[in-house]
Amino acid sequence: MPFGLDARALRVVWTVVVAAAALALLYALRHLLVMVAFAVFFAYLLYPLVAGLERRLPTRHRRILALLVTYAALAVGIGVLAMALGPRLSAEVSALVQRLPAMTADVKSGALTESVLGRFGVPPTAIAGIQDAIRAHTGEWLGTAQRLVTAFVAWVAGAWEVVLVPIFAFIMLANGELVAAAGSFFAERRHRRLWRLIACDLHEALGQYVRALILLSLATFVAWTLVLSLGGVPYALVLAAVAALAEFVPLVGPLLAGALAVVVCVMTGYAHPWLVAGFAVAWRLVQDYVTSPLVMGRGIELPPGLVIFAILAGGEIAGPVGMFLAVPVVAAARIVWRDTRTPALAEDSPPPVVRRVS
Predict the structure, then answer these.
(1) Second label for 14, Cα 20 to 30 Å away, from 24, 133, 243, 335?
(2) What is the distance between the alpha carbons of residues 289 and 283, in angstroms, rounded to a whole number?
(3) Residue 247 contacts residue 220 (beta carbons within 8 Å)
């Protein structure tokens, strides 16, 4: 080659430059990509309803009509739910916010520690030592909590793009089965078949995952609301809502929701916080070994250790959004790895079929 350059070295350098440029582009478009990811999740959430309505409509533009009917029904459902639960939820949130200064003062003064540990017969000397340790680190804990709350509020305030999620989902669903046409980008037949196999597996797994998350979240909200309300737990609806949202972050989310419920019970003087802790553990076992296997199917099969690592890594990279997207991203990477390492499809074999997510 001219100038004495090695062709292999040039190819390596070119590959590194292209990869770095691609990563830089992904980083620059990270907010848009997150919005598109949430739009995909929202589209998979509505897909079973849209597909069911579409099969029953005889009109020419039945996909668009099914989408309009689904969005209208969703808006009505959200409005009814807001009118039914909104006042109580708003009242509980306001009461909890107003009580936070008094709860913080109890922690700093040691009155809360003495009240809780005194009921279990802990000696006064041990209580005094625990109070000294708490006072030494109270400022750090409160500062960390304040920073987390501030960051969350700032993220919510800046997440105006969330209004674009249903719009992008509408466009995705209106354009029909994108998976069926994806293979046309590849010239060779074996590449088209492999891509269709990957796309079909991703389509089925993601549909099962989104449906399972919604069902697990709804089940958690109903169960926590009933049990905590019957038990007279303070701020039962708020704690149930937090637990339902925590279902979207596997393993870590439910653990934090249960810990938060126990902390709120202790700080508000609830007489039986250990019963709330027992219920949180029992419900987690029901979700993991009864409900989740029934609704999740076999689309997402990841070892618990890998799930924990993915969630922590996602949190380090993109915060709460990264924790939510970590599991489906790792599951998608596993599916691509599995399908690309399987023997190539025979040339005369029928193409993979996109199965409906029902």
Answers:
(1) 335
(2) 10
(3) yes
